[in-house]
Amino acid sequence: MARVVVTGGAGYIGSHAVRALVDAGHAVAIIDDLSAGHEESVPRGVPLTRAAIHDVETVRRVLAEHRADAVMHFAAWLDVGESVRKPNEYYQNNVVGTLAVLAAMRDAGVRRFVFSSTCAVYGEPASVPIVETMPTQPINPYGETKLAIERALPHLEAAHGLKWIALRYFNAAGAHPDGTIGEDHEHEIHLIPLAIRAASGGPGLRLFGQDYPTPDGTCLRDYIHVCDLADAHLGALAALERGAPSAAYNVGTGTPHSVRSVIETVAKVVGRPVAWEPAPRRPGDPAVLYAASARARAELGWSPRYPDLEVIVRHAWQWHSTHPRGYRVSGPDS
What we know:
By secondary structure, the protein is an alpha/beta fold. It is 38% helix and 16% strand. The strands form 3 sheets. A 7-stranded parallel beta sheet has the order 3-2-1-4-5-6-10, sandwiched between helices. The chain has a 3-stranded mixed beta sheet with strand order 7-9-11.
């Protein structure tokens, strides 16, 4: 059993990792400022400290009080478009904030770090599937902020003995199979929840680009179930505990799905058509992105339990249909 502090543990991916850690018998404490996370997603009995990751003193105190063996770091901003409009804020939160967590870890003597990274570090790859040895050339500030931390980690390892694993996610999707936790963003940007919303009478979906060099003209992406991402974090923690070398790993299914196929799958699962309207391509959207995850499978002992797109959508629909206003579900008179 490890004692793990999870930053951003009340957020979408972080809350699923917390649940997986608790189910596996680890002792967990959470730091989250609740700017994007939800207290309702925190399991009963797991301590939550409401604080910003920039607060080195508080982070250090939580690490000491919990006698932490490791940190899983999810606290970051993740909207690519917003990062283009607000690069200062993204560097401040994703780079300066993460360095504050790492400084607190150094001071508290915590030497294991699992980092929530992204496939955006690759930019527009020359070929697919993407392997970890491909050049890292981000095309937006979000990807640059994640890569900045990845580049800092080997230096911190040399100076302070930090051991780390960076997990480069592809498109996180779905919800916990028991329907109790799921995706709830104030400003939703992800395709599956937006399609579910459109099929449920909400605003129509904007389909960005229908003329890509793909079989149906829309982008191809690798959708990875959020619980499979959580499993990858447990695998990374176990690898660090047994002394595995620091490294970066892709986490994806290796199977691309088009935007149109996602829309069709949502319509099938929800039982209603997804209203959508055509929109121009977004700058910097590659036609095809999907992962080669052989390294994670071989070295972390990880493989996706829910690789099927329809299962991912069904779990997402189960969450959204029972939480139509997210965690803020309330009575009819609210």
